[in-house]
Design a protein that fits this description.
Blueprint: H1 2-20, H2 24-27, E1 46-49, H3 55-66, E2 70-75, H4 78-89, E3 95-99, H5 105-113, E4 124-127, H6 143-171, E5 175-179, H7 192-211, E6 218-224, E7 227-228, H8 231-235, H9 240-245, E8 253-254, H10 255-266, E9 276-279
Parallel strand pairs: 1-2, 1-4, 2-3, 4-5, 5-6, 6-9, 7-8
Helix pairs in contact: 3-4, 3-10, 5-6, 6-7
The structure holds NADPH dihydro-nicotinamide-adenine-dinucleotide phosphate (NDP) and 2-hydroxyethylsulfonic acid (8X3).
Length: 294
């Protein structure tokens, strides 16, 4: 009953604030966001998502935009990034598209440190950009593929986290959400370095959580199982048959499922953090067991 009453208030206030967002001054007032921290928070948040040109990243950005939050989106493909930015802008929120390769340490550092003042108040960093390349046994796998996976999934995540952290520490708040994988929980055949990169994401998430405790920074690692995105097209280098086969015979996760979970984790009360979360389609138990029909 009490909660219902609160949620009516919340919605009304949220609607008013979203209208007010059109007045430039609103965007610069940091404390108007917080109505009553002990009960709930009106969050006109800024969320930075890497790899927002497709799949999870795009779905996460659009979910936050629909809910009235401002988005910094990154990716390498400028045309796709612009399209996502246009979609986000339709939701009457602010959007900052940044063409950025997370493998490029200098570019990441320069781009993030030179953010305009109004974009520095980042609430959530979603380290999502990543990929698998190839599915071969260790002896046959391509070393260049290994380099790219490690440079993107591991080093890119580290560079982005390091670049954003000074803002989090200065603002005394922040939430890092790392996208791991079931591949970071169990190693499967021909998964070698992709699995290793996601085990690293898990280890880095644990390390960040421990070391950043004094700064009240939340760290969440979300580990999805198979989800239908461009992931397998990238992994199998454009072989559409091989990519499609990954998702036949069962209903895989969709990008929106991951977006909903990221949103849930990001909007919990300030004292609550989901540290580690594994999510799969109902047809999948872990890296090894998927119940396929037909
Ligand atoms: P997609 O291929 O659909 O999206 C990957 C995104 O990462 C794209 O936006 C791509 O943008 C971006 N990206 C890749 N390399 C770079 C780079 N060097 N710099 C910046 N951005 C980059 O795949 P998903 O959405 O499925 O994957 C997102 C994350 O989820 C990955 O980390 C993946 O490992 C993980 N994951 C995926 C699962 C799945 O089954 N789909 C399951 C578990 C985890 P662009 O090419 O424009 O740079
Ligand atoms: C993607 C899921 O099973 O292809 O991380 O490794 S899987």
């Amino acid at each position: 009953m009490f909660n219902d009453a609160l949620s009516v208030d919340y919605n009304t206030i949220h609607r008013l604030l979203r209208c007010a967002r059109n007045i430039d001054v609103y965007f610069h007032l940091p404390n108007i966001n917080t109505i009553d921290n002990s009960l709930f928070t009106i969050q006109n948040m800024i969320i930075l998502i890497t790899g927002a040109t497709s799949g999870f990243g795009k779905a996460i950005a659009l979910k936050f935009a629909r809910e009235g939050h401002n988005c910094i989106i990154t990716g390498r493909r400028e045309d796709k990034l612009k399209k996502v930015a246009d979609e986000i802008a339709k939701h009457n929120v602010q959007v900052l598209p940044l063409v950025l390769d997370v493998q490029d340490r200098k570019a990441v550092g320069n781009t993030i440190t030179s953010l305009e003042q109004r974009w520095q108040n980042i609430d959530v960093l979603v380290n999502n950009a990543g990929l698998a390349l190839g599915r071969d046994t260790f002896d046959k796998a391509d070393i260049d593929d290994w380099d790219t996976m490690i440079d993107t999934n591991v080093k890119g995540l580290l560079y982005m986290s390091k670049a954003v952290l000074p803002y989090f520490i200065k603002n005394k708040k922040g939430h890092i959400i790392n996208i791991g994988s079931t591949a970071g929980k169990e190693v499967y055949e021909k998964g070698n370095v992709y699995c290793a990169s996601k085990f690293a994401v898990n280890a880095i998430s644990q390390a960040q959580r421990i070391d950043l405790l004094p700064h009240r920074i939340k760290v969440t690692c979300i580990n999805p199982g198979a989800a239908e995105t461009e992931f397998s097209n990238v992994r199998f280098k454009g072989d559409e048959q091989k990519a499609a086969a990954v998702y036949t015979g069962y209903q895989p996760l969709q990008a929106n499922d991951i977006a909903d979970v990221v949103y849930y984790c990001s909007t919990l009360p300030p004292n609550v953090c989901i540290n580690d979360l594994v999510m799969t389609s109902i047809a999948q138990a872990n890296s090894f067991y998927t119940y396929k029909q037909g």
